Structures are given as C-alpha cells and as structure tokens.
Amino acid sequence: MSLPAAAVPSGAAATAPARGRVLPSAMPYLQALPLWLVMGVFLLIPIATIVMVSFWEDQETGLAPTFILDNYRDVFATQVTFTTYLSTLRYAAIVWVSTLAIGFTVAYVLAFHIRSTLWQMVLFQVCAVPFLTSNVIRMISWIPFLGRNGLLNSTLIGLHITDHPLEFLLFSPFAVVLTFVHLYALFMVVPIFNTMMRIDRSLIEAALDAGARPIEVLRHVIIPLSLPGIAIGTIFVVTLVMGDFVTVQMMSGGQSASVGLLIKNEISLLQYPEAAAHAVILLLTVLMMVWAILRVVDIRKEL
Amino acid sequence: MEKSGPRHWLLLILFALFVIFLYGPTLTIFILSFQGPDGGLTFPMRGVSIYWFQNLFEPQMVGDFGGSLERSLSLALIAPSLVGVALFGFSLSYDEFSRTIMAAGSDNTLPLEVFAMTTNVTTPVLYALGSMTTLFSFAVVITVTLTVLAMRRKRGAKLAG
Amino acid sequence: MAEAGVELVAVTKRYGAVTAVDAIDLRIPSGSYCCLIGPSGCGKTSTLRMIAGHEAATGGDVLIGGRNVTLLPPAQRGTAMMFQSYALFPHLTCLDNVAFSLRMRGVARTERRRKAAEMLERVHLGEMAERRPAQLSGGQQQRVALARALITNPSVLLLDEPLSALDPFLRGKMREELKRLQRDLGITFIHVTHSQDEALALSDLVVVMERGKILQSDAPRAVFEKPRTPFVARFLGGHNILECRPGTGGLALSDGCAIRLDESFTVSSDVVRLAVRTDRMRLLANDQAMNRLAGEVTAVEYHGPFVRVGLQDKAGSDHSLLLSEADFYARPVALGERVFAGFQPADVHVLAN
User: Fold this and answer.
1) A-contacting residues of B 63-82, CB under 8 Å?
2) What is the pLDDT of residue A155?
3) CATH superfamily membership of A77-302
4) Of A211, A221, A224, which has the smallest distance from its Cβ to C101's Cβ?
5) Half-sphere exposure of A56 (CA within 13 A, CB side)
6) Is residue B107 pLDDT above 70, yes or no?
7) How many Å apart are CA C22 and CA A103, to the nearest integer?
8) Of A32, C167, C184, C339, which is the most buried if we count CB atoms within 10 A?
9) Cβ A236–B108 below 8 Å, yes or no?
10) Which residue of A has its CA nearest to C81?
C-alpha cells in the first residue's frame, strides 16, 4: 500500500532535471533565491552601508571613505549618549509594561470571555482597525484631547477636580508614553491573542478538575502557554519604541530625547558617520535585547 | 471558564475601556474636522461645517497643501492601509500580521514632509485629512470582512449542497 | 472507599433552543463500570460533563455518593476526568502533570513529587517522569493522563472517549488495563464511547442514549440479547430487524411467511418489529413453512473464524448472517443466489416501537 505512494515523489524528482535542466539538489536554493535577493537588496546592503559609513571620516569637504574609530569614540565619550540611551530604555520599559498589561488583558478577554466566534472576530477587528490608519494622524489626535484647552482639561475643570489646566498632560514624557501605548498596544494584543486561541480549552478544564482556582489557571496554564506570544509582542513593542523618533519629538514638545531622535538630528546636520555609528550601536543594542528575549522564551512553535 | 459573575463583567468593562481608549482621540479629531471656518485646532467648536473637507480637496484655497502634493499625500497615507487591510481581512495569522506591520507601520517614517506638515499646519484641515483616511480604512475593513463572510457562506452552501 | 454511586435525577441540558440532554434519570451503582454509548450528538458527552461539573445542568440533580453535587465545582465532587485529547499540560513534565492537582491542594513539593512518581510507576511510566508530554507516544500520554486523574483518589473516574485516539492494537491493550484498574481500585468508572465493542467488553452497565434520552440501561448481555427498540438493536449491531404484520394465525412477514416465537407480546400497532441475532440465523437447504427469511445474497465476507453473508429481502432491507467457517463451507453460497435463512422461535425478540 505505502510502496507505490512512496515511489511517486521519487519518480517525479527523477524526471525533474530533464525538464528543468537543474540539479534537483539546487532546486530548494533556487526557490529561496527571490527571498534572498529581496533580503539582500532591502536589508543586508543598507545595513552593510551603514556599518561602512560609521567608520568613515567626516571632513569639511565631505565624507572620506577611510577606516577610523573616531565616530564610535565620540559616541562613547559624551555623557549625552548615556542619558539618551537611559531615557530611551526607560520609555521602552514603561511602554513594555503598560502594553503588556493592557495587551494581555484584552487578549485574555477576547480569547476566553467572548462566547461566539463571530463576536470574537468582530471585536478583534474593532481593536485592529485603528492600527491600520496613519500613525501620525493617531498621534496628533491626542493633541485636542490632552492640550491646555483640550477635552480632558475642560472636563476636569468642569467637574471641579482641578481649577487650572494640567500642564503635564501634553508635551511631556507622560504624553509620549500614552501615545506609544496607544500606537503599539495591538502589537501585544495580536500575538498574545493568537497563542491564547491555540490553547486547548480542555487544558483549562483539566486544571479546574485538578482543583485550580481561576487565578491559578491563569498562573499555571494560561500565562506559561502564552509566553511565546508575549515574547513576540515584546519584540515588536521594544524594537518599535527603541527606534522611534517621531513620537518622542512630537509628544514631548522637544523636551525628551531618544536615540532615534539623536540620529535624526545628526542626519539633519549632515553628520552621517556619527549618525551611522549611533545607528550601529542602537542596532546592536536592540539585537541583544531580542536575543535575550529569545533565550528566555522559545517562540519557534509560533512561527 | 466561567462566563458570568463579577469577574467576567469586570473584564468586559476593561475591554470596553480599551476600545474607548483606542477610539476616543480619533473621535475627537473626527468631531473637530467639522469645525466652522473660524475654528481652531482645539475645542470649542466654532460652528459646524464641512469647510475643512472642501479645503482638503481645493488646493487653490488657503489650505497648506499644494494640490498635487496633497493628493499624492493622502494616497500615500491610504495606500499602505489598503495593502494592510487586504491582507488583514483574509487571515489573522502571523505572517499576514507581520506584513501588515511592514505595510501600515511604514507611515510612521513616511516622508518627513508629513511629519513636518503636522507641526506646521495649524488648521483643522489636518483633522479632515485624518478623518478621511480613518473612514477609508474602516470602509475597506468592513468591505473585506463582509466579502470574506459572504464567500464563506457561499462555500458553506456549496459544501452543504 | 465511601459509597460513591452516581445518581442522575431528571438531569437536563439545554443550549439555547437545543435540548442536548432531556430529563434523564440514571442510577450507577458504586464500584461499577458504566459505559454511556450512542451516536454523536446523543448527549452522552454532555451528561458526562455535567457529572464532572464542567457543564452546568439546566435542570435536575446530580448525586454522588448520596450527596447533591449539582452546584459544586469539579474539584469538590470527588470525581476526576480523563479528557479525550488527554489535556496534558504541554509545558510541564509528566511528573509535574501528575503532581498538578496535589500542587493545587497545597501539598509540599517533595511530598507531591514522591506521590506522583509512585503513581507514574503504577502506570509503568516511572522512567518517563522528566519528559514532556510531546515526547511520549499516544499510549504513554494516555497513561500519564490516567495517573493524573487517579492521584487525587477520586471515587468516580470519568472517561471521555479515552480509547478513540489509539490504534486498534493499543486500544485493545488499554481496554484490558482500564478494566483491571477499575477492578483493583474498586471505584466507579463512567466511560463515554461510541464503540459497541468497547461498551460490551468493559461495562457492568451499558447506557444507550439517543437524542438526549436514555433508550435502555442494563447489563451488557441483557442489552445485547434483548434490545428494547429497533434503534438499540441497530446501534449495537449483530441483529437483523424483521417487520411483521399481525394476522389471524399470529405474525407474518410481508411475503406471507408465518413467524412463531416464544416471547409473549401485545399488538399495539399494525407493524411489529422483531430482532433476530445475526449469529442465530442459518442457511436452509430447502424452503420451510415457518420462521424463514427469503433473499438474495449480496455479500460474502470471509472473517476467519466466521463468514458473513449479506442478504437482501424482497422489500429491499439488508440482513446479515454470521456463519461459522465450517458451516459456510459445508454448503457455500454465491453472490446473486436466492437463499432462505431460518431461525428458532426462541431466538426471536420483540422490539418496542
């Protein structure tokens, strides 16, 4: 029974070289070629360029293609680098904790507390749609809400909770964090929701059968099994926040710094080698963070 | 898992709060995009009009977008969403999602002009643009969802028959 | 072990407008092996889940050991459930899986690990303690699930189609093991299955369900020999169903052949359905006046110890004869041949409509 079935593919493979005029062993590589081309052109070459430029010299006449370490020395020599990194990491940490708390809760409700599949789909779309609209638009939409004369302040004054507009709401680190959370919460919701939907419902019943209280089901079953989703969401959110410059500049009103903003400012001053050096260090930092996350959680099953 | 009791309702309320958090600001700018011609970037509303929407599509007026630039901009803002939505509607799996991020997420680094525009433009025309793109995304999502549902129903009917 | 019979009193489960379980009454004696059997959607799984407490009864009461547990959570009922897909926690080792409920009960780590290891030994999986479920075969996973269910010393073990995911060879082995375990532990087993073989082989009490109702519950032999309705007879298999009409001299088949039987019966309608076991029919050498079925041979299947002959009567109904190998080859028949099958009055059983 299994013999002829096994013979078919090998027969097909045997005729393949005659038709395609390529060695069968080369086929997989050939099929992967387009992907490699795309990756090469759009990812590897740009990164290689950045790494290369980071060793060039910034002269008054232009860029000199040399190999110097001055750019990196400059980066590490200034206090600004460290305070900027600290500020960016702090943003990443606060935003990560907030999006994780919100994302996990929302995914949990969607996955375990909505009865019908149709409603699950509808509510998921409701959560997802805003993330398909322009980020810049979503960012500025906080301005009339949080501003001095914004909705929140008017409401608070109207309710006599405060007698003067709260200044910390807009153009402040608070506004930056709020906007980040608003922009990136879905990147936590989606992967966590995905892993949660794959949790066999009978596992929860088995836990209840074993005498677990709902909070213990969460701790011993749902959270451990959602870890891959949490890791993927964490990678999304952390890398997005680490590389951001628009949100920080706009929502902090220029009061806050981020590594991305630092690089952007250097670029606008045409200091390409310095910017490249910063970019390489930022890239390495983020890669190390991703590596650390992958060391803790095995996400292979999710991909 | 129990689907009743105070815990269940508390969780549903938290979910509702998240939706309000998501949509609240967008709703604000949607309302503000109907500002009267003398209205500013914040409340109060000085009349209700579609002045800023007209402004958006009439480059000759005192808008801040030059005609063709404006058109290409709104297209650029919409196009990634289009791709994203098209992919999104079909599947909610990872591959699709990461592509959506690539597509839709790219407008946070869109031409710096867009970014500059948001800091320079001081009229609700900006909100009008925002409302338009958001409505457009909604329309596409709903269309795709309905199409998928209809296709599924059709397939279901075919299987049953 | 405390008296732990299970009793269902007018237990009902509705999902919206659909009634999955319709006011069933059932008494399962303590320490017995009970099989709930029926086609899919008959309400057997809902019934099991209501006993377990994973499904709330819409109406009626569930009593375990005389105690009304209808409103109690699963863990307080003295039951343990073995799930169809085993529901082992994929992120925990076998030992931690087995120790899970002890952990939930606050048993100290060393103590619960010792007990779990003992239980794993009992199901012959001691050396697999540190493996993850995904690293085990289906049969091994099932034994882990069994160990996990038994570690809390339940008085009732609930099994949801426990053997359906196994290959036929393992299924047979596991069936023996389940029965032995039940006898050794002396606790009540309630086992949901759609396999007649399983139900007949394992149980002290077979409960046949259809459309949310219990059609018949009795010892396996009683159910098989005296199915109450045509549905039970067909579902259990091994029966030919004959439609007769009452006439002046008694019952007669549609071709006029008279049927004599030992069982007494009352005629309540114009059709009386009779069941005759397939292994109690014989091929006849010639046409006899009574208790014979005429038909055309539609199938001859060799099964080793016996041969199945398929027969189609004039009305188009299919029947089967299980003949011993020797009997068949003493007088073989061929496809398409017109034959007569006879049976004894003692082997005719009257079905309720």
Assistant:
1) 77, 81
2) 82
3) MetI-like (1.10.3720.10)
4) A211
5) 18
6) no
7) 42
8) C339
9) no
10) A209
